[in-house]
Every structure is written in structure tokens, then in C-alpha cells.
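Rotation project, supervised by the postdoc (A.L.). Task for the rotation student: set up a whole-complex structure prediction and record inputs and outputs verbatim in this book. Inputs entered:
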Amino acid sequence: MKTFSHGGVYPPEMKHLSKDVALEKIAMPKTLILPVLQHIGSPAKSIVSVGDLVKKGQVLAEASGYVSVPVHAPTSGEVSAIVQRAIVSGKVCDHIVIEADGQEEWLDGILEKREWQSLDGEEIKEIIKNCGVVGLGGAAFPTHVKLSPPEDKPIDVLILNGVECEPYMTCDYRVMIDRTKAVAIGLRIMMKALGVEKAIIGVEANKPDAFEKMRDAVWSDSGITAEMLKVKYPQGAEKQLIEALLGREVSPGKLPFDVGVVVQNVGTALAVYEAVCEGKPLIERAVTVTGEGVEKPANLVVPIGTSVADLLLRQGVDRKTKKLVMGGPMMGIALPSADIPVVKGTSGILAFNKTVLHRPGPCIRCGKCIEVCPLHGMAAEMVAAIEAGQVEKYEHLHVLDCVECGTCTFACPSHRSLVHYIKRAKAEYMAWKSEQSKKK
Amino acid sequence: MPAIIILCSLGLLFGVGLFIASRVFKVYVDPRVVSVEHVLPGANCGACGLAGCSSFAKAIVHGSAEITGCIPGGEAVAHLVADIMGVEAKTVEKDVAVMMCHGRDVQDRFEYDGIKTCAAANLIHGGPKECSVGCIGYGDCAAACSFDAIHMVDGFPVVDESKCTACGKCVAVCPKRLFKTLPVAKLVHVGCVNCESGKLVRRYCKAGCIGCKKCETSCKFDAIHVVNNLAVIDYEKCVSCGICAKECPTGAIFSQREVRKAAGLWPVKKSKEAQAQQ
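Outputs recorded:
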């Protein structure tokens, strides 16, 4: 079986907790909180004001540039407040609060059934953009941008990412099992938008049933193949997946475009199908609610803007829960409270009742982090430079190429928060760089 | 005996060689650069915007830097430099760094286990404090200060204004942008940057601005206004009378009058006196 060549780790998978629970749509919560910045790029611009009545699927905030997408109302109701708050990454932006009226009334004419075969690439991209579709693997990069490669970089393969290498997470797995046909159509739509003939579906070997379902769904299509991959973290990272499937290496600072590849997540394929064929904007997504602290781990279809507290109350949560994490355990961020909304990039909510906190020790220069880094990065050297504040060295050490997969932190015997240092260093480097360019 | 002769002649030979080389390859250095460098503090702090004191000295002599550009040196150095350059020094107004947050009592909203620096903590939900714009308190500013002018007292930075040279390092390093460099003569400041409504601010901070507008109504000079739930001082109009600070119910507005009097920084000496001393 194929896998990427360098580094990687094998964290406990823990997928058995929630993998057999089929996707279930939750009841509409009373209050929804929608940040205008749920994607990578410039924040959407709010076009509603307090007191406005909105319909389901109505645009609440419109895209403010090319790398930006609109935010839609997940239900009908009233805009009760627009508040400034920090999103998980610490950036402050407007949050639109909607009180649901329980009517679930769609905006007139929005649910338009379309035949995707009759649309051309540009039309498809336009629909995807207007429906606010972003990459649902976690990074939330606007999908229409990813589907528009620069003209001088021809694309020959589209990779559908069904790897889901994060431990605990099972939402992509359930999407592949429960919505197989929709995902397959979503894949074909994206192939058409890109104009490619060839696509590969990558699934890790710990999900054999999902692999078989996907393979069977695309068997009639000669351009699409499904490939089973050896389990290894972080195989779901774009560059690692490309290397594992095609043997093409993406150089530092380059994008998959540069090796003729586009990678899309299975969740994104589903969202693309719903946007193009059903006219449904991205107002809900599959979220895994799991962890030892959750009584009934599940995979839920959740309206964007639902608070984490609503999900935890629905699934039952252990009173001894000590830690909440948004996203997977390797790359997710611990939450300060449950009063935080699910956004487009949220793939899971984890509740742990045991937290083993290791006090970080000094670097013992064992080189473990360097051994496991899938990008051949030298985390120990990076952190030494970061601690010494040597900003000018960051570029040479490839600090900016780090994808923050958490492999080094996982492997560090001294329990050092290496990724946290690197995250800080990236912000530092950007500030330094802009100052340098100002001086010139 | 032959050894002595050989060594002496070698010494003579090299001596002559060096003499010729020093004449042929002479590099002309403006004597003013040397003497300007001599009077500069030599801290190489970079507050002038150049790499260090010697490059600043060169820049002054070449006319590409202001004579008053040395911030830590202040007025005294400016006068010395002016003497060397043979021009008249303009008076320098001493600036100090002021911290615009007074939220000492703000509680943590979550347990933070990461790296104990403000820059790192700020990346996780904007820091562990309830107030998302206030001081995080891990002391990046104190660590960055080259003049030992910022100390962490009970997890909160305190500026020692007599040592502060307004080099601006704390201004740049604070992830919440809480420091400002302002003239010593400006005594009254608003110690809060939170634009939330008063009700919300009150929930987690006793010292925050609640936007009650008492300062606005009490000010006789139209120098303070509540904009977006936050009192903002117009330093052009402010005469540092301190009435708003007395009126402020939360103590968010504060006057440094007593502190600066005690440190001998205020009242600021008139420039005429300085010239008379010269």
C-alpha cells in the first residue's frame, strides 16, 4: 500500500467511538451565531442589520474580494444582534446572531434543481462561490479559488481526500458511507470545473468499507480510481497525500497547482453537490462529537452557527469533562468555553475527561521531531531560533512552510509545545517582513 | 649579536612598510563622526531607527538624520551634538511610554498551559484573560525593554518613567498594542482600550471604561469624548488639568501628575532655561 515517504507518526486512532453512528440531522437550535470570517481570506461584509427578518439561505454577509465567500442564514428568523468577538484564532470580527423562528422558511427560488452536465466550468465556479463553499477539511480555503488554477499551470489530476487521518474524527468517513452518490457527483462536478479527466480518491486502510463504497460508486467512470493508503499521520495533509498517491513532491513555498494537482476534501465534494445540483448554500456540515467525555458519541449534520454547548448537551457530556477541543486532537484548538459556534471549518468537537498535562522540559536535542516531520523540517532548530528571537533565520529554516500538523509536538519526549512556538513565529515573521519592506 | 641586528633591521623594515601603507591606503574619516559618536550614549538601542550609535553618528554628519534623533540621549545629547555640528539645537520634548490598560483584577477565562509569552498566548483565543483587548501579563514588554524601565509587579507591567527613553520597543512588542509613547507634559490618560458596552466591561473589569460620559461633560476644554463606548483624549486640546480623572467612576482615566512630580520629571523645564544653562 502507498504512503508518504518521510516521517509521520501513529497516534491511537480512537475512531471506534463514533464510526458506527450514522449521520443524523439535528433539530434547529434557537440561537445561531455566525462569524463573518469563517474562511481563509478577507472577512465577508455584513449586509444585514439588527432587527432584520431573514429567510433560510439568505445572504447575511457578502464576499469582500476574490479570496472571500458569503455567509448565509442557516434558518429563517430575526437578526437579534451583531457583536464583535474573537474567533478561535484570536482575530476579532463581526458575529451575526440569529434567533430562529422555527418556520425553516427558504428564500424564494433558491432551491433550484440543476442538471450539472449542462453547466460549463465558469458557471459551476460561480455557483460554488455564491453558495459560500469552502474546503471542509479544516482549513476552510474558498473552493472556487482552488478550482481556478493559474493559466500557466495545467492541472491533470484531482485528488479527493477521504483520508481523515486525525484520530477520533469520523465525519468524513460517515459522509463517504452515507452520502456516497452525492460525493461521487460532487467529485465529477469539480472535475468538470477544473477540466481534468483523471481523479483519484484516497482513503486510508482503516476505513475499508468507505473505500469499497467509493470505489463501487465510481467504477463506471474510467477516469476515476480509488486508492487505499497505509495508515499514517498526517496523510490527509495536501502535500503528503499528493506524494503518497502520485509520487510528486511539492517544493517549499509552492502549491499543489505547481505539480498539476488539486486536492479537495470529501465533505467539500458533498457541499459542491448540494450547491450545484440542489441550489443549497453551505449552511450545514457534518461534525463529529466524540471523546471520552461524551456519553453518546455521534456524527451530526449541524447548522453552521450552532453553539458547541448545544451539541454537547444533545449528546450528553460527562460532568468531569476537563477539556474541550475544536477540530481533531492533533491540530485542533482547546476551547475556553462551550459558548463558541460551529463554523464552516469545524470538523469535530472533542470532550476529554482526563487531561494529562505534561510540563514541558528543555530540548534534549534527540532529533525526534526532525525524524518525524513529514516536510523534512527541523523543529528543534526552528524553536531554538524562535526562543532566541532570530527572526532573520526563520526563512532559511522554513518556519513558514510548517503546516502545523502537530507531529513533532506529538513525538517530543520532552513535551515541548513546538507547534505553538512555530505559530507564534509565523506572526512574528510577518510583522518583521512588513517592517523590512517599509524600510526599503 | 647577529640576532639583535636581524630583529632590529626587520623591525625597521616593517615600520617603514607600515608607514608607507598608512599613507597610501589612508581612509578619510570625518573627525566630526568620531566626536559625535563619542558623545552618544553608546547603548546601540536602535531607537533612532538606525543600526547603532556609529551609523547614527554618520547619518548626522551626512545630514540624513536629525540632531535630536537620539531618543535615550534626549536634550543633553542633542545639545552636545549641536555643538559639534555647529548648529542650534531645537528643544527635545521628552516622551515616555504609557500603558493603556488598568485591568489588574481581570480574571482568567481558561487555564492556559502554553508558552508563557504574550505573543504566544495571544494566538489562543486572544489570550486567557476575560478581556480580549487588555493586558495578558506575561511580560513581553518587560523582556523587550533595554533600559530596565518596565517591571512586572503582580503580573502587570509598570513603567519606571525616569528610566524610560521612549525607544518604542514595548510599543512594537505588545500583541495588544497597549503602549503609547507620549510627551511627559501629557499627564492624563485613559487606561482602557475596550470598546464593549459598559455593562459587559463591568462584568469582568473593575477598572475599565464604561462609557458613562462623565469625563465628556466635566471637561472644560472639549478634549475628551466617548467614541464607541470608550473615552478618547484629544491630546492637542488636553491641558492635563485632571478633572476628568477625578470624575471617572471606575478610575479608568488616570493622572500621572503625582508620580511624575515625585520622579522629578514634571513640571517639565522650560526650554529657555535649558538654553541659559548652555
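Student's summary: The interface with chain A takes residues 109-110, 113-115, 117, 119-120, 122-128, 132, 195-196 of chain B (CB under 8 Å).
Supervisor addendum: Chain B has twelve helices and eight strands.
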